[in-house]
Amino acid sequence: MSLPTRDAATSETQLVVNWAALTGDSTGGDVIDSYHLQWDSNTNGVTWTDLKGQDGFEDTTLTFT
User: Fold this and answer.
1) 3-state class (DSSP) for residue 24
2) Do residues 1 and 22 lie in contact, with contact meaning Cβ atoms separated by under 8 Å?
3) Chain-wide mean pLDDT for the chain?
4) How far apart are CA 58 and CA 23, in angstroms?
5) Is 34 helix (H, G, I), strand (E, B) or coil?
6) What is the pTM (predicted TM-score) of this model?
7) What is the pLDDT of residues 23-44, one digit of tens each?
8) Alpha helices for 1-65 (secondary structure H)
């Protein structure tokens, strides 16, 4: 998977993140039914907050604002 990128619409008050869809061998042969995006709130990976795609809230869009 390629790294997510910051969209040009990002500002001091809004972060917009884009990523490429998983395809081919990257899917492990499965259909992708959700992308799960988390943020660690600058805790160095200690505490994670779900932003999109967590269990029960599947989401296949390729951007987050």
Assistant:
1) helix
2) yes
3) 92
4) 18
5) coil
6) 0.77
7) 999 999 999 999 999 999 899 9
8) none
